[in-house]
Here is the input.
Amino acid sequence: MEILMSIWEFFQNNILTRPQFFIGFIVFAGYMLLRKPIYECLAGFIKAVVGYMILNVASGGLVGNFRPVLAGLKDRFDLSAAVIDPYFGQTAAQMSVENVGRSFSMMMMVLLIAFTINIILVMFRKYTKIRTLFITGHVMVQQSSTALWLVIFCFPQLQDPSVVLMLGVLLGVYWSVASNLTVEPVAKLTEGGGFATGHQQMFGIFLVSKLAKKIGNPKNSLENLKLPGFLSIFNENVVATGILMFIFFGIIISILGPDLMHQIDKGFSPKQNFLFYILEKSLNFAVYLTILQLGVRMFVSELTNSFQGISDKLLPGSMPAVDCAATYGFGHPNAVTFGFLFGAFGQFLAIIGLIVFHSPILIISGFVPLFFDNATFAVFANRLGGIRAAAIFPFLSGMIQVLGGGFAAWYFTTGNFGGWHGNFDWDTVWPLIGVIMNHFQFVGVAAVIVALLAIPQIIYRRNKDTYFLIAEDYDAYKELEAKKQGVSVDKVIID
Here is the structure.
């Protein structure tokens, strides 16, 4: 048993929690199963790892670029509150677990059981209707951390082995079902890209894909927006992002003032002009977005090509569920910035509401949900409901992130340690799961698991002829849809 635990610990510390290597080895194994020459397998491994590392650099740059602004808002207005961000949430969850005298190391076993449950559900997809393998390692760690505290909070009397087993099953079912919900939206967005989303807003993606076309018109999308005269410069993604971020950062940083920014941002040189500092911070946003899109193209291409080997040989009919940023290269480039801005408006309005109505807890925006949730929603909403949907859904999401995150941080007491997870699913689905577990105990856990497993069954019964086809052969799926609509494949409408 000790040998097995040592092997798992090595895998967890060096591969599972390092998603670049996790994806790299999946690409390598996929190409090997496709009987590619060893040098092609190695090349695919390197390109996948480097592509994901580029994505990490861009994501880290975006977060780091915005963090001094958040710190400045906290210091300038003397705010002491919970930050809604998965990294702050992970720390708060760990401190909460250790504060009640429990070991946070249980999370390692939770990961093992949850990942195993996901594999089993995919292996028996004929019965479970699960098509996706969740492989976004750092997200798995963040979610395991927060969920561990939720279970201990709801079941303080439960011994460690029981906590690990129950949470492993619950989390594995959630990963499987939630990522499976994104198969159709992602396939339609990417024209059969061969992957799904395994991140923090999977239920949100599903809701947006169902509701966007009801409130907007795809003909009025960002792709079809023709700006007159000098406004046409906004048709260029880099230019639009730079200008909009200059306005956004300019207003906030100007309110904070140069003296405070010198104190909290070591990158602000004493000799640098304040206006040029704002300009640099703003344009960095465009730089990191461009880098992010480059990394996405590299690793997604290798992953989707190689995963066919795993799908054919080991887990037939399955597809990988990866970082939500993988979808950004398939939507209009300005949709990402659009989603971030309207999500920020929603969050700021909700924070003002908390202050006005004397909320027992105050929330500070975290960049990860503020950007990645809302940018993702805008990409999907723009495709189905145009500009109107791309503005409304991120705005509503921003408000939900603050209000739902505020409730969760207060109810589950992680606000005492300064944070909550903060992403959409963890401001909606998981607080509900936590409340159900807290009130109905083991019956509640069983009810949640059964309800989650029923979701793919319901969706399958509504689309039996295309449910597996859209994941396995998108071209065949389009042909079938064309026959239903009585049109040629090139005129078929996929919404």
Q: What stands out?
A: Strands lie at 82-84, 132-134, 196-197, 319-322, 363-365, 419-420. Residues 2-323+332-460 form one domain.
